[in-house]
Write a structure and sequence with these properties.
This protein is of the alpha+beta class. It folds into three domains: 1-38; 40-101 and 126-205, no CATH class; 218-250, no CATH class. The protein has six helices and eight strands, in the order αβββββαβαββααα. Strands 5-4-3-2-1-8-6-7 form an eight-stranded mixed sheet. α3 links the parallel β6 and β7. α2 runs antiparallel to α4 (205-213). It is elongated, with a radius of gyration of 26 Å.
Length: 250
């Protein structure tokens, strides 16, 4: 009897210890979530480009240089990244003032996979979803600029090798010029991306979440997300206000 009592006491103590550990983890996650939502993010993004070609037939020369600085809270975390084209030239991350060093990634040699004779069928892109996503993306930028203290400014000149493509782009971007506070000027004589753009200011996590939540007001995007989610309660919640009625899978 004494041995059984000791074993039960040990199991009971382990169970209580496990419950306290789980409660501590949940509390830490809640604290981290509150910090992300209510501690400010100071951002500073800058892009400079002199990438252009002398005429239609010549190759483009120059470079696209970019820089991004992000600081979370006063001393919580900060990061600086800079590069040219798609190459990263500077990367620095600090947590509470302590620099973090990352090891360079080594490419792993993977064995060659045998080729398959069959081709995978792909669904054609949904044009309604593409248009809705483009509109909501422009509106999201405008909401963030209006709700938060972020400032977006810039002056860019762009052009494609074919002047017709530049004209089509100008017609496509026309409705969104008022939504995006960056001056865009077409160049029909050459391929070019010349100018600068900058985004800086302070933003809070709950402002981003609130602005992103309004994207679900579009029924096309809501229905597209519902098709990708397999969990039935979330699908029902998404489709409850959409165009389609929710049906349980047989």
């Amino acid at each position: 009897m004494v041995a059984v009592s000791v074993v039960l006491a040990i199991l009971w103590g382990l169970l209580w210890g496990l419950l306290w550990v789980l409660a501590g983890l949940v509390a830490l996650l809640l604290i981290l979530l509150l910090l992300i939502l209510f501690l400010p993010f100071d951002i500073d993004l800058r892009l400079d480009s002199d990438w252009a070609a002398p005429d239609w037939e010549e190759a483009m020369t120059g470079a696209i240089r970019w820089r991004s600085r992000v600081r979370w809270g006063r001393v919580m975390a900060a990061g600086v990244w800079a590069g040219e084209q798609l190459s990263l030239t500077r990367s620095e991350v600090r947590i509470c003032g302590i620099p973090l060093r990352f090891r360079p990634r080594r490419d792993k040699v993977r064995p060659a996979r045998p080729k398959r004779n069959w081709t995978r069928k792909r669904k054609p892109p949904d044009l309604a979803f593409i248009l809705a996503a483009a509109q909501e993306s422009a509106r999201l930028v405008r909401r963030l600029v209006g709700v938060t203290g972020i400032r977006v400014e810039g002056d860019m000149t762009y052009g494609f090798p074919d002047p017709a493509v530049t004209g089509w782009s100008e017609a496509f971007l026309g409705p969104w010029y008022r939504m995006v506070p960056v001056h865009l000027a077409p160049d029909f004589s050459r391929s070019a991306l010349i100018g600068w753009a900058q985004v800086n200011g302070r933003i809070y996590g709950y402002q981003v979440a609130q602005a992103a939540w309004r994207v679900l007001d579009d029924p096309v995007i809501r229905d597209w997300l519902a098709e990708k989610i397999r969990f039935q309660p979330i699908r029902y919640w998404l489709l409850r206000g959409g165009k389609r009625q929710w049906r349980t899978s047989s």
